[in-house]
Amino acid sequence: AAMRFASLGSGSKGNATLVEAGGTLILVDCGFSARETARRLQRLGIEPAGIDAILVTHEHSDHASGVAALSRKHEIPVYLSYGTARSGRCDGSARTECFNSGESFRIGAVDIQSVAVPHDAREPCQFRFSHRHYHLGLLTDLGSITRHIVQSYRGCDALLLEFNHDIAMLMSGAYPPQLKRRVSSDWGHLNNRQAAGLLEALGEDGPDRLVVAHISEQNNSRQCAETALEEISRIPGDVVWAGQGDGFDWCLL
Q1: Which pLDDT does position 129 carry in this prediction?
Q2: pLDDT value for 1
Q3: Burial of residue 150, with CB atoms counted within 10 A of its CB: 0-12 exposed, 13-18 middle, 19 or more buried
Q4: Which of 29, 41, 121, 177 is least surrounded by CB atoms within 10 angstroms?
Q5: Are strands 77-81 and 53-55 parallel, antiparallel or unpaired?
Q6: What is the pTM (predicted TM-score) of this model?
Q7: Chain segment 135-156, per-residue pLDDT in tens
């Protein structure tokens, strides 16, 4: 396969995603300690020293807490937006390369389009990866779907998409009111209906393979997410479920 991707874990306790194409290996986010990251990488057959770059979506600890330590230990360059860099969360990295959210750049054999998203961080972005004619979209940690997002994720072969919460479960659940407001806001996280709505908006330009990601352990269930998916007219042929504990194994494009 020309492109493959896997997850070390997906959810509010820690996130990290691997993308490999044309001999270039990229780690997107690192919300685990260096030791835990190494353990999870080993499960996927990867040595930390083999990573060519770490990409950071935003500074929240479940995405960025392990970035600087991993970068330092293995001399891995870190790519992040200027706003994310200014947060200070990745200070102490071996080397940083900053970009403006929305810019495109290349790492090794992989073309990367950063996509600005509405989330309560300094300058959050998500990514679209391309290698030859393969396209992979990563889209989590956003509170609403904008027209720009729909345009940016057309024609992906695979899409890793946040189905964070079921709105009824969130509202009737144990979270304090302030946290419920934050999660459900336009700058929080996608609920199942919003995620399904993006797939509906993409229509024929939607992905063949879908990874359901960043599922809340408290405020969602696989059944709720499946129900939302069943309501769209073009369901992706292949659906993978990302877990907090073990992410998911290599998916080939």
Answers
A1: 98
A2: 60
A3: middle
A4: 177
A5: parallel
A6: 0.98
A7: 999 999 999 999 999 999 999 9
Identity of the residue numbered 122: R
State the pairing for strand pair 209-213/158-162. parallel
For 9-43, write each residue's pLDDT tens digit.
999 999 999 999 999 999 999 999 989 999 999 99
Dihedral sign for Cα atoms in the order 200, 215, 249, 93: positive
Sign of CA dihedral 87, 90, 91, 96: negative
